[in-house]
Design a protein that fits this description.
This protein is mainly α. Helix content is about 50%, strand content about 0%. The chain binds zinc ion.
Length: about 120
């Protein structure tokens, strides 16, 4: 008997938690979606799927709300280490990161300049 290949969903929940600080509505609905997938033992989305969905969501929202195009996040296009957004994110809380991130460094997804760059509505 072959056991089904189980993808670990915990990194996804980490990222959802990080997104909650940016967009609680999206985070909660994605959480439900993910939970349904897990319950059905269906293939769960990858971290990249989640980031892609979130970016699409932002794009749609921005188009709808006609948000002003000027934003502090443009600084993220430069050096992520220098970014004020990254420090805002990581200053919130400092639980100990235990798993390597998408960028293979040990830190929380919510403290990752790469992921923050992905999930922020960069203009
Ligand atoms: Zn990282």
């Amino acid at each position: 008997m072959n056991l089904p290949e189980i993808q670990n969903e915990y990194p996804l929940y980490d990222l959802i938690r990080a997104i909650k600080g940016v967009d609680p509505m999206f985070a909660s609905s994605y959480e439900l979606y993910l939970e349904k997938k897990i319950r059905k033992r269906a293939n769960i989305p990858t971290l990249f799927d989640l980031i892609k969905s979130f970016r699409n969501h932002i794009r749609i929202n921005r188009a709808e709300s006609k948000a002003p195009s000027h934003t502090a996040f443009v600084t993220l296009q430069g050096d992520p280490a220098e970014s004020t957004t990254a420090t805002q994110f990581s200053a919130k809380s400092t639980p100990l990161p235990t798993r390597p991130c998408l960028c293979s460094k040990i830190h929380l997804f919510s403290a990752c300049p790469y992921i923050i760059k992905q999930i922020q509505p960069v203009g």
